[in-house]
């Protein structure tokens, strides 16, 4: 392979990528990264006018074609409609970033102690973080199989899907002016992402579809100084991540640069899970 271009292997020009949770803290950075590397991006999130505005922003900044679609990933009908609209616009789907996650509108219920956690709240989070992941992977994977050209699916997990949270970090720790923790439903739902990824990696391997998990560590995004310091003390690199530091791993997994990588967990956590 004397003429192989290592640089071109990262090029996403001509490919179409769907990003669920595209308006989130990390989602916008993921969409920008994919667009900058040449992909046409389908921005998927709940609020119709916001996804459309952001899609237009991406087109203006990067000169690619983008589409904003509202979708409730916990609804089979909504997911089916979203994929059909993406295919109608672009013809094919080559990349899926299965990234949507929920932390609930009722923060008191979401952050409740394990002993008092309601089954209703548990099911609300599972409907997005687990069932939504399944529904989107199922619908997009089916389309990729029909295309018979392979594809790359990247599913967003969490550091707390592979290690338990250190609850000492959360003493006197606040996010957006309220006391926080990591509830068991979040850890459980994110751990399930890895199991689904491994299953699909083997299931769709004969179709040339690669499936991997991107696992972010803690990202600095409005936590108070107490939390940031305590979290950073648990990290070999001694700091939290910046959102843009997750994008390189996504581009690698989305592109042909990772053509022999499937069923894996790419952990971007500053070394936290090593200790």
Features:
15% strand, globular, 275 residues, seven-stranded parallel beta sheet, 9 helices, 39% helix, two-stranded antiparallel sheet, alpha/beta, Rossmann fold
How would you summarize what this structure contains?
39% of the residues lie in helices and 15% in strands. By secondary structure, it is of the alpha/beta class. It has a single domain, classed as NAD(P)-binding Rossmann-like Domain (Rossmann fold, 3-Layer(aba) Sandwich), CATH 3.40.50.
Q: What can you see in these coordinates?
A:
By secondary structure, this protein is an alpha/beta fold. The protein has a single domain (8-106, 126-164, 184-220, 243-268), classed as Rossmann fold (3-Layer(aba) Sandwich), CATH 3.40.50. It has helices at 27-36, 48-62, 76-90, 107-110, 119-129, 131-147, 184-203, 225-232, 247-254, and strands at residues 16-20, 40-45, 66-70, 95-98, 151-156, 174-175, 178-179, 209-216, 265-268. The strands form 2 sheets. A 7-stranded parallel sheet has the order 3-2-1-4-5-8-9, with helices on both faces. α1 (27-36) links the parallel β1 and β2 (40-45).
Order of neighbouring strands in the sheet with most strands: 3-2-1-4-5-8-9
Total count of helical runs of at least 4 residues: 9
Strand content: 15-25%
Structural class: alpha/beta
Helix content: 25-40%
Mean pLDDT score:
96
Number of strands: 9
The rough form would be described as globular
Characterize the biggest β-sheet.
7 strands, parallel
**Architecture per CATH nomenclature, i.e. the level-2 architecture:** 3-Layer(aba) Sandwich
Secondary-structure element string: EHEHEHEHHHEEEHEHHE
CATH class: Alpha Beta
CATH topology heading? Rossmann fold
Q: Return residue spans where pLDDT drops below 50 for at least 5 consecutive residues.
A: none
């Amino acid at each position: 392979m004397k003429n192989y271009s290592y640089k071109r292997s990262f090029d996403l020009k001509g490919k179409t990528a769907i990003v669920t949770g595209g308006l989130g803290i990390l989602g916008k950075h993921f969409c920008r990264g994919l667009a900058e590397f040449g992909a046409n991006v389908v921005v998927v999130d709940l609020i119709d006018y916001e996804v459309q505005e952001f899609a237009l922003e991406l087109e203006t900044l990067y000169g690619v074609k983008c589409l904003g679609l509202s979708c409730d990933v916990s609804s089979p009908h909504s997911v089916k409609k979203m994929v059909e609209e993406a295919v109608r616009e672009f013809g094919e789907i080559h990349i899926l970033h299965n990234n949507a996650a929920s932390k609930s509108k009722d923060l008191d219920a979401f952050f409740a102690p394990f002993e008092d956690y309601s089954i209703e709240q548990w099911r609300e989070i599972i409907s997005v973080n687990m069932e939504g992941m399944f529904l989107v992977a199922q619908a997009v994977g089916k389309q990729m199989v029909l295309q018979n050209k392979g594809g790359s699916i990247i599913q967003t997990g969490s550091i707390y899907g592979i290690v338990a949270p250190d609850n000492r970090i959360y003493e006197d720790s606040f996010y957006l002016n309220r006391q926080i923790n990591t509830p068991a439903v979040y850890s459980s739902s994110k751990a399930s992402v890895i199991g689904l990824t491994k299953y699909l990696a083997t299931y769709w391997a004969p179709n040339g579809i690669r499936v991997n998990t991107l696992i972010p560590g803690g990202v600095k995004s409005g936590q108070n100084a107490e939390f940031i310091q305590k979290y950073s003390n648990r990290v070999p690199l001694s700091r939290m991540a910046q959102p843009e530091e997750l994008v390189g791993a996504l581009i690698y997994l989305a592109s042909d640069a990772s053509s022999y990588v499937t069923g894996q967990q790419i952990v971007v956590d500053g070394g936290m899970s090593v200790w």
